Amino acid sequence: MARLPRLTVPGYPHHIIQRGNNRQAIFAGTQDYETLLAMLEEYAKKSAVALHAYVLMTNHVHLLATPETVEGIPQMMQAVGRRYVRYFNQKQSRTGTLWEGRYRSTLIQAERYLMACMAYIDLNPVRAGIVADPAEYAWSSHRHYIGLRNDKLLTPHPLYWELGNTPFAREAAYAEMVGSGVSAAQQKALTESALQGWALGEADYVADLQRRTERRVSRGRAGRPSSKV
After folding, report:
1. Backbone torsions φ then ψ of 115, nearest 5 degrees
2. Whose CB has fewer CB within 10 Å in the chain, the N or C terminal residue?
């Protein structure tokens, strides 16, 4: 069966996953993490993509981003992916592929899932047993949102600004939200939607997306779907 083209719609948040080939490590040291973040900052700006959240794990990466154009995310991911592979292969004296094929992504309904997706991203190192508290992990956006550092590559989503009227109030509310965790159902939905490429949201949201693209946005019969989702 042919793979679905990636679903990309300008102005909507996208959850993106890029894995190492065969789950192999894609970072060998601090410089590698810093290099990938610098590349993301550079190409997010060049591609007009607002990066809201990220986590760099040993063998995969999660991003939450909103593009201004339909080409934005593909351009950013292709540029970063190719350049990082060249850098990593040269540094490690290796050849061949580093990534597990193309990146996976989908759209998520901001009002229902964006903050949960940010918490899900932040909690990856906790679920993996690397740290007990997401604030202990250096390679995610969590510290920025709780006021422990200023991360230039990030563009907070408007829903983050609604958490409070002052920086302290927003940071405290965000820390409390992440501390409350993500339900197993939300975790499963966020993971599967990104890996499978189906939009994640309520029926009205999915129906509205379908009117904006020729590509199917949810599971259904083959062929062009009905707008009734």
Report:
1. -65, -35
2. N
Which residues are bridge partners to 20 per DSSP? 99
- Which residues have a Cβ under 8 Å from the Cβ of 221 and sit 6 or more positions away? none
pTM: 0.92
Tokens standing for residue 169: 């109030």
Looking from the CA of 193 toward its CB, the CA atoms found within 13 Å total 22
User: Pairing relation of β-strands 104-107 and 14-19?
Assistant: antiparallel
Q: What is the DSSP letter of 140?
A: B
Strands laid side by side in the 49-56 sheet: 49-56, 60-67, 14-19, 104-107
Tens-digit pLDDT profile for residues 87-103: 999 999 999 999 998 89
Question: Look-up: residue for tokens 């779907």?
Answer: 225
Q: What is the mean pLDDT of the chain?
A: 92
Sketch out the chain's domains with CATH numbers. Answer: 14-210 (3.30.70.1290)
